[in-house]
Amino acid sequence: AAQRLHLVTVALPPIAPSDGRPGFADQVAREAFRRIGVEIEVSVLPGERALINVNTGLDDGDLLRTPAVEKDYPNLIRVPEKMMDFEFVGYALDQKLRIDGFGGLKPYGVSYTAGWKIYEQNVKEFRELTIAPSLKEMFALLKHGRAEVVLADRWQGLWEARRTGVEARLIEPPLARSAMFIYLNKRHAALAPKVAKALAQMKADGTYQRIAGEMLRPLEAP
């Protein structure tokens, strides 16, 4: 029988599965692991809990993390082929609004959701800051004029704006980018280079691009 691993993630749709619908990252990971003879299950867990579970070995891996987690969670082994780049972006209703880096947020009422380390560390200047409990509530703040700029990543933000019917414009260029990787508990360290090789093959043979085309690109259509 195939080896089975249980991976966790804090990601939201369209990156992670939701209500029985697959997400981009779990589709990609499932295929990469399948190619090396491993079946995976993916569950969504809250932020720190997911990392603690993988670090202690309660769960086998984390679907999508930045290398920033390695310092505090030494039992996480990176699969050394990136899953994707996360682009951290602002959204606004004002079509003309421009932001030049994190300092450009200074004149605005800003919101992001709890637990986004990149925003906790970099958003230091603003007219007003509201930490929202969820992306849904964050986009509601934007819709009702209680925030002028809301911060998320490209895909989860586009998904939520579309789902909640908020006419939000994604502000280019991104405030930051980060390469995201699959992480495994160290007891599965031997699998990391094999999964990386399978991921690289998927990018070379077009499988990766096909999944992105199905799961992500439609969100950019007007």
Fraction of residues in helix: 25-40%
The CATH homologous superfamily of the largest domain = Periplasmic binding protein-like II
Separation of termini? 46 Å
Structural class: alpha/beta
**Overall pLDDT, averaged?**
95
Query: Strand-and-helix sequence, N→C?
Result: EHEHEEEEHEHEHEHH
Major β-sheet, in short?
A: 9 strands, mixed
Q: What CATH architecture label of the largest domain applies?
A: 3-Layer(aba) Sandwich
Shape assignment: globular
User: What portion of the residues fall into strands of 2 or more residues?
Assistant: 25-35%
Rounded to the nearest angstrom, the radius of gyration is: 18 Å
Under CATH at level 1, the class of the largest domain stands as: Alpha Beta
Q: Indicate how many domains the architecture comprises.
A: 2
- Please work out how many helical segments DSSP would assign: 7
Number of strands: 9
Unreliably modeled segments: none
